[in-house]
Amino acid sequence: MSSTVLVTGGLGYIGSHTVVALIEAGHRPVIVDDLSNSSIAVLDAIASLTGTRPTFCQLDVADRGALTAVFDDENIDSVIHFAGLKAVGESVEHPLRYYVTNYGATLSLLSEMMAQGVHDLVFSSSATVYGVTETVPIDEDAPLGAINPYGATKLGIEGMLEDVASTGGWRIALLRYFNPVGAHPSGAIGEDPAGIPNNLMPYLMQVAVGRREQLMVFGDDYDTPDGTGIRDYIHVMDLAEGHLAALDHLREGCRAFNLGTGAGASVLDVLAAASLAVGEAIPYVIAPRRAGDAACVYADVTRARSELDFSATRTLEEMCVDHWRWQSLHPYGFAGPDTVESL
Ligand code: NAD
Ligand code: WQD
User: Fold this and answer.
1) pLDDT at residue 172 above 60?
2) Which residue CA neighbors atom 24 of ligand 2 most closely?
3) Cβ-count burial of 18 within 10 angstroms (0-12 exposed, 13-18 middle, 19+ buried)?
4) Which of 53, 118, 234, 266 is the most exposed place for a label (fewest CB within 10 A)?
């Protein structure tokens, strides 16, 4: 059934792909984004990809008055809440920034939803809520713990949403993403990190496109088959479809779901698949371990499969091919070389 979905942070990496999926499924997304980590060019790209230019309001979700105006004007049925800060390292350096932004936006949004009688919510959580765990696969009942301020905000917001849902009438899905990578197969939208990428895939793609010299592989002495860290990479198009499945299967209360593939790939596996996609070897060096990294993290995806009827289908090869198409078409992202630092 078609519905109007407020998408906070809808011009960001995961939000923009989800907006495309929503439009293609016949929904009407209404995007709010303050453009703090995205470009207005994403809206044009969504319009040319889908033939529909979604309603967009540039605002900070923490600005309750601006949010009220959107709810008053747009007849919102449900909300997908992506907006927030997400860089682990930055959160350690500037913890207050993370608490203020991530809690502030969520408190404003929840208060407005309560006032407007909108009680259906899908929230972007993260596998980071599992802390550093040695037991894989990780299911949703695994112990929770934050190891940095970013993770603390995700964990805190999950708790906040459980409390709100316990008052009755709310239908909330907490989606714990594992490692989102890849891009829309057109190459028209994709991940566009500001500054030096924190994550493996955008970093190695910037090496491949000539913006950085080499990848540093953080440790080759882990207790894994090739000694490098193992993660559960999920194609952003699969992730986008996971949001549609979550919206379709919202139930009374608050329920957490892992969104991953259920399989792990090592850093060297990703390097090999990315090199194939790019068509040449991507230079790398082995570097010391990165503080706080676990050896091996992948999801138990049983709950999403059985309760949301959702399974990721795209392979690591597709993730790399699609990410590379985006990166090679937009070597400097949406901003262009003049406004982006190079090496
Ligand atoms: P992103 O930075 O690309 O997208 C977030 C968007 O929200 C940006 O467009 C930004 O401009 C906007 N935004 C930030 N604060 C805002 C505010 N106060 N008001 C309005 N707009 C605001 O990030 P992403 O990778 O698309 O991540 C989306 C969500 O998923 C985040 O909540 C993130 O924590 C979560 N998540 C991401 C990953 C990942 O690896 N990308 C993994 C797990 C969870
Ligand atoms: C993956 C693997 C690294 C970079 C992070 C956040 C998590 C979530 C997803 C938001 C690890 C190795 C990395 C590099 C490398 N984000 N690596 N060289 O750490 O699993 O998760 O992103 O919620 O909260 O912590 O992802 O992409 O940083 O690392 O060798 O330059 O690649 O050591 O084994 P991670 P990642």
Assistant:
1) yes
2) 128
3) buried
4) 53
pLDDT on residue 14? 98
Q: What is the DSSP secondary-structure string of 281-331?
A: PPPEEEEPPPTT--SB--B--HHHHHHH-------HHHHHHHHHHHHHH-T
Whether omega for the bond prior to residue 137 falls within 30 degrees of 0, making it cis, is: yes
Match 């990190």 to its residue by tokens: 193
Residue 338: pLDDT band (50, 70, 90) is: low
Supply the pTM of this predicted model. Answer: 0.98
3-state secondary structure of 255: strand
Domain of residue 218 covers 4-341
The predicted-structure confidence for 15-62, as pLDDT tens digits, reads as follows: 999 999 999 999 999 999 999 999 999 999 999 999 999 999 999 999
Domain count, the chain: 1
Our mutation pick for probing the ligand 2 site, out of 177, 181, 200, counting the most ligand atoms within 8 A of Cβ, is: 200
User: What CATH number has the domain bearing residue 45?
Assistant: 3.40.50.720
Which tokens is 43 given?
Answer: 């809206």
Smallest CA separation from ligand 2 atom 7, residue: 128
Residue 218 near ligand 2, beta carbon < 6 Å: yes
> Residue 243 is which amino acid?
H
Ligand 2 pocket, residue 13 CB under 6 Å: no
Q: How far apart are the C-alpha atoms of 44 and 54, rounded to whole Å?
A: 10
Of the candidates 207, 151, 150, 194, the residue with the CA atom closest to the CA atom of residue 13: 194
| 120 CB within 6 A, ligand 1 | no
